[in-house]
Specification:
Strand order of the largest sheet: 6-5-4-7-10-11-12-13-14
CATH class of the domain at 161-306: Alpha Beta
Radius of gyration: 50 Å
CATH topology of the domain at 161-306: Rossmann fold
Low-confidence stretches: 13-17
Order of helices and strands: HHEHHEEEEEEHEEHEEEHEE
Distance between the termini: 182 Å
Number of strands: 14
Largest sheet: 9 strands, mixed
Helix content: 25-40%
Length: about 300
């Protein structure tokens, strides 16, 4: 009897690359982390009733704040009225300085002030503007001294000369200061003891109450400024008039002498000092009364004196 011997089956060989695949799976498993799902948040549901309740609460708050604000304003207004009626802020002292032509009554009326009035109702800035509008007032300063006093300091224009302004067929006499600013018109009874600049044309020689730069009116003012420096032979007190002639230039007239002095239009400062020397000789020789005219514009380096003789 034959004996059957089972054949030994050799063990299966591992597939090529099988170990690497299992390793990759292991790494992937380790690296893979399950993310926790975000907890579900239920969206609040605002019903119509809730919305109406919130709107009602907001309206109540708004009304309450508005009411409080109104009450506060009323209290402030009542407090202000009581302070106005209080004697603490009644004006008991108003001091005004610097007035010469203007009067204290004019300043008080322009400022809107009176003794016994409430200082709380006074607007200093607005009062300064009104006072400064007066033609004689150059500058004004108001100082409030609480609770019941005010100090007003006025600086008036200082007249330097008079200007006769021609406009169409009308002529107006105004004052001018040393800066060449025209201010108040000459009123009845006011001082007239100043030299006069005549022949000034409003449209040609004056702009915004000042002389036009480089014009004959400005040149006339400059001649008077030279005389105002106090030269003993030709001071400003001896000048009666400086007339502007559009063709001949400036013509100067002296108070004590009837003859004209023709200055022309240029080199006025040089001509002024030359005139001083000419007059000095004429006075020294007592020939000034014989002079008919003096022409400073006769030639560049020559002066023509008609009716008398001078050296040089």
């Amino acid at each position: 009897m034959a004996i059957y011997t089972p054949r030994q089956v050799p063990p299966r060989s591992q597939k090529k690359g099988g170990g690497a695949g299992r390793f990759s799976k292991l790494i992937g498993t380790l690296l893979r982390r399950k993310k926790k799902a975000a907890p579900f948040q239920a969206q609040p549901i605002v019903t119509g009733a809730q919305r109406a309740w919130k709107l009602k609460q907001f309206s109540k708050t708004t009304i309450l704040l508005t009411g409080c604000g109104f009450v506060l304003l009323v209290l402030l207004w009542l407090s202000y009225q009581l302070m106005i009626l209080s004697d603490i802020f009644r004006l008991t002292d108003i001091r005004i300085s610097g007035t010469r032509i203007t009067t204290e009554r004019q300043i008080l009326d322009l400022a809107g002030l009176q003794l016994g009035g409430s200082l709380l109702k006074f607007n200093a800035k607005a009062a300064e503007v009104r006072i400064a509008a007066h033609p004689w007032v150059e500058q004004v300063r108001i100082k409030t001294q609480w609770p019941s006093a005010i100090e007003i300091t006025v600086r008036e224009y200082q007249p330097f000369a008079l200007v006769n302004i021609e406009e169409a067929k009308e002529k107006r006499l105004r004052y001018i200061n040393k800066e060449g600013r025209l201010f108040a018109e000459v009123g009845q009874g006011q001082e007239l003891d100043f030299p006069v600049i005549t022949g000034v044309l409003l449209q040609k020689d004056v702009a915004s109450n000042v002389f036009v730069k480089g014009g004959l009116a400005e040149a006339a003012c400059n001649v008077l400024l030279l005389a105002a420096k106090g030269n003993a032979i030709l001071p400003i007190q001896s000048v009666s008039e400086v007339h502007i002639d559009q063709q001949q230039g400036l013509i100067v007239y002296l108070i004590d002498q009837p003859f004209p002095v023709y200055f022309g239009k240029d080199r006025l400062q040089t001509k002024y000092f030359r005139l001083v020397k000419v007059l000095e000789q004429l006075y020294a020789k007592k020939q000034v009364d014989a002079v008919k005219e003096i022409r400073m514009d006769y030639a560049d380096d020559k002066i023509l004196v008609t009716g008398a003789k001078i050296d040089g």
